[in-house]
Specification:
Elements: H1 2-5, H2 7-37
Length: 38
């Protein structure tokens, strides 16, 4: 239902997913780096 009601918002949502995953990967890399240092 939601997808058909507002296609623009869902399009933006799907475009945001890769950026969100990149941020998570970047943060996890930093955390792992600090964990390995100590």
């Amino acid at each position: 239902m939601y997808f058909h009601k507002n296609p623009m918002k869902t399009g933006i949502f799907f475009l945001e997913i890769p950026n969100f995953l990149k941020k998570i990967r970047y943060i996890t890399n930093i955390v792992l780096h600090f964990c390995l240092e100590y």
